[in-house]
Design goal:
By secondary structure, this protein is mostly helical. The chain has a single domain, classed as Rhomboid-like (Rhomboid-like fold), CATH 1.20.1540.10. The longest helix is centred in the middle third of the chain and has 22 residues, at 80-101. It is globular, with a radius of gyration of 17 Å. Strands 1-2-3 form a 3-stranded antiparallel sheet. 60% of the residues lie in helices and 10% in strands.
């Protein structure tokens, strides 16, 4: 299922939502220009759980450096499809949410959800040497908050059936509830296995953090 847009009329200009899209895109352009320096850059600024357990990996990192990975990893991406998919979802769900809860609350929710998502990914994959990057945990927080604030909104969704595209409006609580269920299902079955390319637990952590934060803001 590919979300195309929602049916909420945004209130005002979603300044921080567009700013976050711009910053993430800018960092991705920076990554593209790094060439052979990209891999060590990702190992330094992506979220690498093993730096907390492997002294050899962390020999040049201070405690602050290791903590800072929870922030810096949110602005890095692993490829074109990764960044486009993330920023597309942020453009759909973020603008309506920012208009409803306010600019600074929205920025706070985005950043704290991103930190929560990274913390849960760190705990569930403790000791992994594979870096996690991407804004999807923070965006999952936006989606979790949207799930609470706009449950009856409708998400215009593209469902490809063989070669025939099918456009349908799905209530937000069904679309996002199903999305979260797939993340939880995949996350549970990923426990104990080697980490894959998708940070299921970062998504779970971000989504639940977004729900908690927006409820506290009410």
């Amino acid at each position: 299922m590919i979300p195309l847009r929602d049916t909420i009329q945004p209130k005002g200009f979603a300044f921080f939502n567009y700013f976050l899209i711009f910053v993430n895109a800018l960092f991705f352009v920076f990554e593209l220009r790094m060439g052979p320096k990209l891999e060590p850059f990702i190992l330094r600024y992506g979220l690498v759980p093993a730096v907390w357990t492997n002294a050899a990996l962390a020999k040049h990192l201070t405690f602050t450096d290791k903590l800072s990975q929870l922030v810096t990893c949110m602005f890095l991406h692993g490829g074109w499809m990764h960044v486009i998919g993330n920023l597309w979802c942020l453009s759909i769900f973020g603008k309506s949410l920012e208009g409803r809860i306010g600019h600074w609350r929205y920025l706070f929710l985005y950043l704290v959800s991103g930190l929560a998502s990274g913390a849960l990914e760190l705990v569930t994959h403790w000791g992994s040497p594979i870096p996690t990057v991407g804004a999807s945990g923070a965006i999952a927080g936006v989606m979790g908050a949207y799930f609470m604030v706009f449950p009856k909104a409708r998400i215009v969704t593209l469902i490809p059936i063989f070669i025939f595209p099918w456009l349908v409006e799905i209530p937000a609580f069904i679309f996002l509830g199903f999305w979260f269920f797939t993340q939880l299902y995949s996350g549970i079955f990923s426990l104990g296995a080697s980490i894959g390319q998708i940070a299921w637990w970062a998504h779970i952590g971000g989504f639940t953090a977004g729900i908690y934060l927006v409820r506290r803001m009410a």
